[in-house]
Amino acid sequence: MERGRFITLEGGEGAGKSTQLRRLAAVLAARGIDVVATREPGGSPGAEEIRGLLVSGEPGRWDPMTELLLHLAARRDHLLRKVRPALDAGRWVLSDRFADSSVAYQGYGHGLGRDLVVRMHELAIGDFRPDLTVVLDLPVATGMARARGRGAGEDRYERMGTDFHERLRAGFLDLAAREPGRCAVVDADAPADEVEARIRAVVEARLGAAADKRFVPPR
Ligand code: TMP
Question: How far is it, in rounded angstroms, from Cα 197 to Cα 26?
Answer without folding.
Answer: 13
